[in-house]
Amino acid sequence: MLVIRRRAGEGFLIGDSIEVDILEVDGNQVKIGIRAPRETSILRREIAATRASNLDSAHEVEAKTLEEASKRLRLSTLNPKQY
User: Fold this and answer.
1) Whole-prediction pTM value?
2) Which backbone phi and psi does 15 adopt, to 5 degrees?
3) What percent of the chain is helix, strand and coil (3-state, nearest 5)?
4) Are strands 11-14 and 18-26 parallel, antiparallel or unpaired?
5) Under DSSP, is residue 5 helix (H, G, I), strand (E, B) or coil?
């Protein structure tokens, strides 16, 4: 891991196409700006972890369970009073 110190108004580059600017420092919070190509995905770590957890959970659901849930959803839209 590279650790660098930057002040507000300073920045750094990642490769040739990603630029990170330090916009504001306020106590223990830092506001950063990131310029990157549109095809570059930028996610907060906690969002990426939640996404991975959701994908893992989704893979554990059996096809039969999904099929039954799908049938219930279709039926509930046809006859909402039944469910």
Assistant:
1) 0.59
2) 65, -150
3) 40, 25, 35
4) antiparallel
5) coil
Place of tokens 């999904």: 66
Residue 82, both tokens: 């039944």
**First-to-last C-alpha distance (Å) of the chain:** 54
What amino acid is encoded at 3 in this protein? V
3-class secondary structure, 73: helix
Are 5 and 16 spatial neighbours (Cβ–Cβ below 8 Å)?
no
Q: What pLDDT digit, counting tens, does each position of 36-67 carry?
A: 999 999 989 999 888 888 887 777 667 777 78
3-class SS string, 10-48: CEEEECCCEEEEEEEEECCEEEEEEECCCCCCCCCHHHH
Domain locations in the chain? 11-82
The residue ranking higher by pLDDT, 7 or 65, is: 7
